[in-house]
Every structure is written in structure tokens, then in C-alpha cells.
Protein 1
Amino acid sequence: MKAHVHVTLKTGVLDPQGKAIQHALAALGFDGVEDVRQGKFIELKLAETDAEKARASLDEMCRKLLANTVIENYTIDLVEE
């Protein structure tokens, strides 16, 4: 089983990398971009076959390592191979 984890900054948290991307896009002529928020995409291959157990384990991974829950949100998507 594969899992996709998306980690993004919470609303209201400043995103300097997102602003840098937005300015770079404008410099390249992409003027219609009003805002950019960047984040992380993490793909994990799991040995676990039980979706409920996998989701619980992934949630713990996110809380302990993959996301800084003070300033970041995360979503978990399980993907059947």
C-alpha cells in the first residue's frame, strides 16, 4: 500500500518561499498568479495492508516527524497499488 502525505502551512502563517515563487513567476511574465503557498509531498510505501492501521500509523508519523503541527496541516491519502 502506498500513502501520499501533503504538508502545508496553516492559514495565517507567513510563507516566504511561496512569496519568492510568486515574484519569480511574475518576473517570468505569469502575471495572473495572485498567491502561492508551497508545501511538501511525501510518498511512502507501507507493508501494512489494513487501511485503518496504516492511517493510524501515518497519523503518528506526521505528528512526530513529518509535519510541525504548530504551523503545518497535513492530509493523508492511501493509494492502492
Protein 2
Amino acid sequence: MAIAVGQQAPDFILHDSDKNKVSLSSFAGKNVLLLFFPQAFTGVCTKELCAVRDDIARYNTANAQVLGISVDSVFTLAKFKEDQAYNFPLLSDFNKEVSRLYGAIYQDWILDMKGVSKRSAFIIDKEGVVRYAEVLESAGDLPDFNAINTCLASLA
């Protein structure tokens, strides 16, 4: 299923790297930047999330909560977050339900891995409406952060 701009964002509940349940709906009244990424500790994923970490003031100014989502376990994500000092939650979609719900999943990936999150970016506004959607086919590509930042600035 593909998520389209203008539709209500599907709600979900996932565990964060601290083992707490986090729902999308708990951020009502804030903009949310969902960043699906294939796997912790890989080069492109680390580069992407470190860039977001280093630019967190931009997201805070836009009243935006950043959420990173992958199919890694909460334990892997806890170590990844600690090692890279990420300043936003990392959520485990270990059962692959949210990645499927958002149309952000590889059926087949490298090394015969199946069901890995596609690198994707979604902006959900304060009312829960999708304002930006980008699902990348190549895990080596990064989301268009210029377009993301322009979208968020228009919502602030």
C-alpha cells in the first residue's frame, strides 16, 4: 500500500530503543518526520541519521518530532542510538507491520534478506495528514532533505 500526500497517516504503535511503546497519535499537535531506514550500523543509514542528529535544531524549530524506524530489534537500535548519540527516538518495526503499512519495505534485499524497510521519508502534520511522502527504491540514495525542510518550514 502506498501512502499518498493528503491522506490521513495510518496510526501505529512500536517499541522504541528504551522498550517504551510509542504511537504516532501521541504526537498530535506536532509535525512528525518519519524516517524509515534499512539497517542500523550501515554506512548510508548512519550518514542519514547523523545528518538529522546534527541538524536537530531545524526540526525543533519546525515543531517536528523526528522518528527513525527500522526492522532492527530494540536491542540493536539501543546500541546504534548510544554509539551515534542520536537525539530522537529509534523505533523497532521488527514485525514489519508499519513498514508494510507505509509501503516502505523491500520484499527482497541484499544477502537474501527479506522484509527490510526501504529508505523513506514521510511528514505528517499536526492534524495527522501526510504532507510529504518519498519512498526510495535504492538503499544507497538519501531522501531529498531540501524538499523535506521546505515542507516542514511551510508547516511551522
Protein 3
Amino acid sequence: MSALKLHLMKEVKIIIEGEHLHFVTDVLDQIKASGYTIFNNLSGKGHSGFHEGHMMFNDTSSLQMILTVVPEEKLDPILSGLKPFLERHSGSLFVIDASVLRPEHFDS
């Protein structure tokens, strides 16, 4: 039995208000991220207090998290595209190392 080979990638999580979801997904589409997952209606506590995870009116009024896994060379373009946005709007961005089994699924 052969050992499984894992490939190092970067996992990026962006938490923003739902009204800004399309801005973030447009940045990811422009840098050709192979895909992303959107988590709706998040709850949590941050420096601005507690956020309830239910929809008040629609998806744009709640917090959303976008998760993508990309090769390291796509990280700087994502950060460059989102930094000016996050300087003007509330939100969080996290980057961690991730290992994947099938790297071809994450490189477009």
C-alpha cells in the first residue's frame, strides 16, 4: 500500500456582511479560484459585539463566511483585492495552511 501524498495549499476564510458577498466572490472569480463555499447566517462575537445568525430581512442583513482553498501563488492577489475593502468595511480574513489530496481540484 502506498502512502498518500498531500499537497500544501492556503485556506482563506472571509467573514463579511451579506450585502458585500458579491464583492468577495467577484475577487475570487477574477483571480480564478477554482471554487468557494459560502456559509450563511453566522453567529458569533467580535470586537463590535455579538452577531445573531438569523436572517432579519434577507441574506444581505446577516454575516456570511466564504471559504476557498488556493495555491500559494493566488494568495497575494486575493489579499490585494480584499485589503482596501476590509479597511472600509467590517469583516475578518483568516489564512491557514491546508493540505489537499487532489491539488488539481484547487488550481484552475
Protein 4
Amino acid sequence: MKDNQLVSLSKQLAVEIINLCSNLKDSKKSSVLTNQLLRCGTSIGANVREGNYASSRQDFINKFQIALKECYETEYWLELFVETNIITQNEYSFLINSCNKIRRLLVASINTAKACQ
């Protein structure tokens, strides 16, 4: 259940990040920062998917740890975006809440996998 929820939430976050970055580019607020957010925000779901098809438990843990790092990086860029008024507080709140949910699920999945080694 957690993995299915994690796949779904990380994909939803990626779609939201893609839409946000696309809107920023359309409004001429595009920058290197937008590209950074796009990369890390979409990487979370890609690594979760890879982890679900890992060749070993250690490979699974590695992919989920990468996804966790990307989640933390996404949170960092979102904080910068809201503090510099690139995005609104409402946009930030929605996206950071999604990141928080994903982060908690990733940590739980990593801890469970490590406990089973």
C-alpha cells in the first residue's frame, strides 16, 4: 500500500512541478533555478519507480535514498522560490505538504527495508 501511495504521490508532485515550471517559463520568470526545481522535483518519482523494480534490497534502498535526497532538494528550491516571491505562499504550502508526505513515506520504506536485511 505504501509503495502504491508513494508512486502516486510522487507522480502527482512531478506533474505539479512540471506545471509550475512551465507557468514560470511562460511568465518570463524562468531561470536556472526553475530548471533545478524541475529536475529534482521530477526525479523523486523516477527513483521511486526504479526502486520498485530494484534488483536487490540494497538497490531498492539506494534508489529510495536518492529519492529522499531529491525530495529534500525540492523542498530547498521551493523555500527559495517562496522567499523571493517567485511563487505564492499558497503554491508553496501545497507543494511543501506534498513533499512532506512523500518524505515520510520514503523514510518509513527505507527503515523497513533496512530492518529486513
